């Protein structure tokens, strides 16, 4: 049971580590406490090494499971979905732009809605309403 708890914690690590690195490297969020360029590079390199080691140990644990076709198929689908989600975390954290041609994956971190005039109110459903 302890081994499976360690695997579960290894799988949850990217969901805490990657957003933390993203936020601590943004000047808009951290202000004067933002990481410097050397610290930023060092933290990304160390985190990628740690995540790689964790993925290796998760793979070793999965290989030790009993060889059942249905179980292996189910685990393969879960691993694929997990890897896609972690890839998207890296994509947004490193602010890549190569998937911007897909509207649903576009990185909208710099797009903020402009303030409307007090006379014009936009309803939640998108209709224009005048006071």
Structure summary, number of beta strands: 2
End-to-end span in angstroms?
A: 62 Å
In what order do the strands lie side by side in the largest sheet? 1-2
Order of helices and strands: HHHHEE
Which radius of gyration do the C-alpha atoms yield?
21 Å
Provide the residue-averaged pLDDT.
79
Shape: globular
Pfam family, one: Nramp
GO cellular component, one term: plasma membrane
InterPro entries: NRAMP_fam
GO molecular function: cadmium ion transmembrane transporter activity; iron ion transmembrane transporter activity; manganese ion transmembrane transporter activity
Question: What features would you describe in this structure?
Answer:
Helix 1 packs parallel to helix 4 (69-93). The chain has helices at 2-24, 27-30, 37-63, 69-93, and strands at residues 120-122, 128-130. It has one domain (2-107). Residues 112-128 have low confidence and may be disordered. With 131 residues, the protein is mostly helical. It has a two-stranded antiparallel ribbon with strand order 1-2.
Helix-strand blueprint:
Elements: H1 2-24, H2 27-30, H3 37-63, H4 69-93, E1 120-122, E2 128-130
Antiparallel strand pairs: 1-2
GO cellular component, one term: endosome membrane
Family: Belongs to the NRAMP family.
Membrane topology: Multi-pass membrane protein
Key attributes of the depicted protein:
131 residues; mainly alpha; two-stranded antiparallel sheet; 4 helices; 60% helix
């Amino acid at each position: 049971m302890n081994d499976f708890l360690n695997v579960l914690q290894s799988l949850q690590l990217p969901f805490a580590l990657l957003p933390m690195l993203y936020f601590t490297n943004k000047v808009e969020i951290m202000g004067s406490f933002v990481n410097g360029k050397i610290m930023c590079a060092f933290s990304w390199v160390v985190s990628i090494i740690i995540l790689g080691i964790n993925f290796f140990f998760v793979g070793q644990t999965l290989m030790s499971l009993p060889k059942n076709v249905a179980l292996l198929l189910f685990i393969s689908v879960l691993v694929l979905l997990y890897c896609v989600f972690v890839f998207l975390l890296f994509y947004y954290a490193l602010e890549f732009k190569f998937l911007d041609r897909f509207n649903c994956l576009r990185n909208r971190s710099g797009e903020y809605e402009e303030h409307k005039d007090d006379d014009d109110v936009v309803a939640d459903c998108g209709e224009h309403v005048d006071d």
